[in-house]
Design brief:
Number of domains: 2
Bound molecules: fe (ii) ion
CATH topology of the largest domain: Dehydroquinate synthase-like, alpha domain
Structural class: alpha/beta
Number of strands: 8
Distance between the termini: 38 Å
Number of helices: 14
Helix content: 40-55%
CATH class of the largest domain: Mainly Alpha
Radius of gyration: 20 Å
Oligomer: single chain
CATH architecture of the largest domain: Up-down Bundle
Length: 392
């Protein structure tokens, strides 16, 4: 068989560690001992801060290090410059040599940026942006996701808003990547059904957008394809049967794989829409992707080629857009964008903001402002799980 040479590529890999184990939280002690850590600090989603998960983690760490960890609660809302500065202050007074973040994307992103402030003192905004040379922090950094969605536990980026504004700040540095991602699916069984659906659809959007991105390639495609395959078999199951250990584990593995893919391949138009829907209209991130992805995929379809067939085959549908529509419907996320943005002028602002996103350039089919307006218009109609009626 003859093979053509791969296209030129740049693939970011961290040579770091992913540990996947049911009740893996108990392994924090061994990890602390292995690295000789003495001063642990826990950042925990405020939802869990006074509960069993935080207490178990603190107890395991205290046994291993001989020191009681401060438990720093992180607000459940998306991180902003104020909440990050507050977390950084609490971390600084603990002088930690081990930082463990337990929670969803908001908690992990807060921990990533707050930790960087320890070695790069100043304002939160000063360390935002791409390609900043950030000084490393010497602590061991462990992220423990409690939702299967953002994949923040293996990515080198974080997102926060500027407090009191709609401005989103993006942080990206290899120094931010956690050294250890600890995947303990037992922590996700108590996740409310709505959060399972929204965060799972975010993971699905990561996998699909990374797979079809202009930056995708031989190193990222295997992660993206396997992530879609696992989500096709487990996401709706985890939503309908929250206690299903297998489904929960596969969703967590899939969200991690999707993030490894998008860390190099980047994302596309659904994320370009989700950002202003979140910033301007407080639409939860995964829901914003769900509002957008079926129509976005219908728009992209002419540019997908064999990859479109691969996606359809994984989900057993006639085409890729129908697959995204079907999963969205099964997760009860088949909603009209009008529920959140009923006003035409406000939708125009969303289209304008989406057009300024860097993700437009990564999307397989170039979209101009009229295309974006047409997609937003189409998002006003739920699809009932069928093929989106959108041709452009
Ligand atoms: Fe996302």
């Amino acid at each position: 068989m003859t093979q053509t040479a791969p296209a030129d590529f740049v693939f970011f890999h961290s040579s770091r560690r992913v540990v996947c184990a049911w009740n893996g939280l108990e392994r924090l002690g061994a990890l602390a001992e292995e690295h000789g850590c003495r001063r642990p600090a826990l950042l925990v989603d405020a939802f869990f801060a006074g509960g069993d998960i935080a207490a178990r983690a603190a107890s395991v760490l205290a046994k291993a290090t001989g020191t009681a960890s401060p438990v720093i609660p992180v607000p459940a809302h998306e991180p902003d410059t104020d909440s990050i500065a507050k977390a950084a202050e609490a971390l600084a007074s603990a002088k930690p040599d081990l930082i463990v973040a337990i929670g969803g994307g908001s908690t992990m992103d807060t921990a990533k940026v707050a930790r960087m402030l320890l070695s790069n003192p100043g304002t939160v905004e000063a360390i935002s942006g791409f390609g900043k040379k950030l000084a490393p922090h010497a602590s061991l950094f462990v992220c423990v996701p409690t939702t299967a969605g953002t994949g923040s536990e293996v990515s080198e980026s974080a997102i926060a808003s500027k407090s009191g504004s709609d401005v989103k700040l993006i942080f990206r540095s290899q120094e931010m990547t956690p050294q250890i991602a600890l995947l303990d699916a037992s922590l996700t069984v108590s996740c409310p059904a709505k959060v399972t659906a929204q965060s799972g659809y975010d993971a699905l959007t990561h996998a699909v957008e990374a797979y079809i991105s202009k930056m995708s390639g031989v190193m990222t495609d295997p992660f993206a394809v396997e992530s879609m395959r696992l989500l096709a078999g487990s996401l709706v199951r985890a939503y309908r049967e929250p206690q299903d250990r297998e489904a929960r584990t596969w969703c967590l593995v899939a969200s991690c794989q999707a993030a490894i893919a998008f860390n190099s391949a980047n994302l596309g138009l659904a994320h370009a829409f989700a950002a202003p829907l979140g910033a301007l209209h407080h639409v939860a991130h995964g829901l914003g992707n769900a509002l957008a992805l079926p129509v976005v995929t219908a728009f992209n379809q002419p540019a997908l080629g064999r990859k479109g067939e691969t996606i359809a085959a994984i989900f057993g549908t006639r085409d890729a857009a129908t697959a995204m529509s079907k999963v969205r419907h099964a997760l009860d996320l088949d909603l009209s964008v009008d529920l959140y943005v009923p006003d035409g002028d406000a939708r125009e602002k969303v289209a304008q903001a989406a057009s300024r996103s860097g993700q437009v350039r990564m999307n397989p089919r170039l979209a101009d402002i009229d295309d974006l307006r047409a997609m937003l218009e189409a998002m006003r109609k739920p699809t009932g799980g069928e093929t989106p009626a959108f041709v452009r």
